[in-house]
User: Fold these one by one.
Assistant:
Number 1:
Amino acid sequence: FTVWSPATKAKVTIDALQKEEGIGKLRAYPPGLHLKNFSEVSAGEPISLDYRTEPYDVECPTNDGIMAKASGSFQWKPKETLVHLERFLLIRGDPKNITTGVIDEAKHVLAAKISQMSILDAEASLDVLQKAMDEHFEKIRDEKDKEHRSIEEEFAIDVITPTVATVVGSAKWQAARSTKRAMEEIQAAAKNAVEDAKKQGQVLDIG
């Protein structure tokens, strides 16, 4: 008996003769032709092996006490081996665990860097933050690094390193900065008006 999975799908079967906790054993088959037991039958929708894009927003304090919101995205998909797909079957019903795990890693990286910066430096340091993100995810993928268990290994997925698209101060900070800019523009306009008046021999009272 055989089962065929197309290029971007993993067919799922259930084997009624092999029980796990009282129910038939689930199996997932990566793309291609595979042998299966005669007792296996199709079990629901196949698993998509396409990358899924997930946005993220995390908040981190800066060294001047202002909260910075970092935003970006990452992509993930199930690994395409029998062993990994069998593990992925255990969590496919709740992918929130995957997104939470990746976002927690991203926040760990960003918080460590942003906490050493002012809000203005953080907003202007996207390249520095992205480099830190790239290095961190490369490190946790290293099979020789026993200190960290890779998210990819834990959830049986492939992850494209999160991007860091924007970093902005909190809404309160943005409002304060806008007010400050408006005041600076008013003061500059008043100064220019006084100087223009002086040139014309006039005295301008802006008090």
Number 2:
Amino acid sequence: QQADFALWKSAVTESTDATARRRAAGKLLESGWGVSIDLLTSLLKKDDQPEVITAVADAVSEVSNPPQAIFNALLGAYERSADAVRESLEIAVTQYPPAVAIPEVSAVVHDKNIAVADRVALIGLLSRFVEVETVDALIPCLDKQEPAAVRQAAGKALAMIAGVDLGESRLRWENWWERHRNAGREGLLAANITRLQQELKDVRKRNR
């Protein structure tokens, strides 16, 4: 175990090859060893090594049941990272069950001490989860006291999830949600399918 751990640690932290780093991070994840999870958690905090953060995120994206122990570290890295790294982290976060991810992401989205640009990015991350709880979390972001960028991002995210564009009016969304919430996740997915079908029709019309 010690030899394998040392080998994988060396590869993920010192290799100049992206594939080798990702594979080593994957081996650490697969091992399930406490020391491996601790290492991956600490690597996600190395903001001066975005290539290492990307390797860990990519490895998480490739497993079906990632350890919950590193979720908060992934989310923290997402808050701090540049857009290029965030792409990998976003995919990694969405590997987690909605019941795990949505409350944690929502809490940060609603934290007014977080920079507006980061809250906007996190709203985009939250919108990857087409769930009732996502809509519940996004509607308060339309409050008039919220920054314009937050309201705009929340309105766009809600429109994408719900398949209907009600702008940035909290009252309109609350009224709509009161009528449609009981349809649950299935209703949201059906609305998404309808929206995508309409978008496809529009594309075909423009290409004629």
Number 3:
Amino acid sequence: DLTGKVALITGASYGIGMAIAKALAAKESVEKVYIVDIDYVAEEDMTDKMMSFQFDLTNERYAFFDRFDDVDALFFTAAVKEKGPFQDIPFTHIMQAFNVNTIPALRLIDKFYSKLKGEKDFYCAINISALGIMSVPMYSVYGSTKAALKSFVDTVNAELRYDGCQNRIMSIMTPITETCTNEIDKSVLDGMIACMESKWELYTPLSE
């Protein structure tokens, strides 16, 4: 479990990332929560256990993450999203969407892969969104970035199983509306954390 553990969350200055950060920081057993985002976390959202770091995930210099060698749990929640018909989405956003939503997750897994393959417990979760497995009009680009992530996570988990490793990456399949707000039901967050602690590969919260 996460007793005495240190968590790192990317893309957590708002939305589901911030909700997860607050839920972890509220757990007495969790020692520390690092938050990495392009923006610093607002002072009113910080607690004593949280430490905020500013970093652009599209930056080439991922040596930035070398400082987090004490991390036991990794969450990736960063995302940009533009709603609209594909024909109206500018190419600049298509590039930005993959450069923020998809590529940084692969780079972070690469950065922490030795922990993921190690004998010690390492907890990992990536917010895929239900759009990673559903075809929803007006979300063609965002859905594509998330579908690519889902394929990546499933394939890496298959490789970990083949190699006899105990750790897994959990796909968080949140509904669209729950990725953009800090106010996520406590039972959803508790369930998410519990499933990650149990090394589940998929978490799909029930929503009304």
